[in-house]
Amino acid sequence: MALAGGLGLWFALKPGQGVDVCKELGEDTRVRSALGSGGTGDSDCSRLGEAVRKATVGSEPGAHSLRQAQAMKDVLVTLADVMGREEGTVDAEFALPMAQALADYMPDVYGVVAPGHMDYVRAFGDEKPPWTDDDGGAHVSVSSVSLLQVMRSLADTPTAYAELRDAATGYAATTFAEVPQGAAEWNFESPVQDAAYVLGVMDGVADDVRQDLGAGGWDAWSVDVFGRMTKGVVAPPVFEKDPAGYIGASWRKSLRAGGQKGMVSSFEAQSGDMVRIWSKAAGLDGGVRKSLLEVARDTSELGREGRARDGS
Asked: How sure is the predictor about 310, in pLDDT bands with cuts at 50, 70 and 90?
């Protein structure tokens, strides 16, 4: 199965120290055009981040115009270009609003990162515009290498990583809940494969951060990520009334119960744990449940290793 642009050794694409990333972005003609009146060459990281969020996110969560989707593509491509061309670190004041904006495009993140989404493979080129689906929703694609470069760069800021991980969790829960009762087994496998791969990639990103930060920096990073992801955890709603909410809230509750020291283990087991929560609540057959758990385990490992499901 193909990735959008080929995943390659994504873990080798690391942020460094040096170039003023916000200055580079603020002065780039693509970004200035994408941000319109909100981007006039301003290199202040906080103002630039807010301008990106304003230009790319609509009033309804997850719903975007083609213009907003194009703005997101321009920012992603430019940021990846800057990080790939020169050493630099993304300032936290930019990283958080950028991550919040990107989180609003989580279906597209899944489409780019998880293998096999051919609409995204066909449209990842820099000059390929966003498109609309049959329901009128706008979608955008970039190369997987570019997107993972951006995700890794943002992840140095723990709150930014938490935003992306939480959005990936919510989207996984949504796709699980959308599978109709009584559907064929492959209908259940597809969302599990996607979620397990993306969450596995997020594990790999976190591990790369750990290696770069060292023990002291990693401890502080972990505390912030855990705090962000467990803040405001509520009791799960009734599954029959809100299946996606039930799946997501149940997993977040288990994350909190595992504690900050157990966060990495909770992350690595996440796709399987979410499958258990979902399959039990939905009353899936024991054989189907076992098969889905195997899919989640194997595919999340491929995501952590940065490889496509066919091992290429």
From this structure: very low
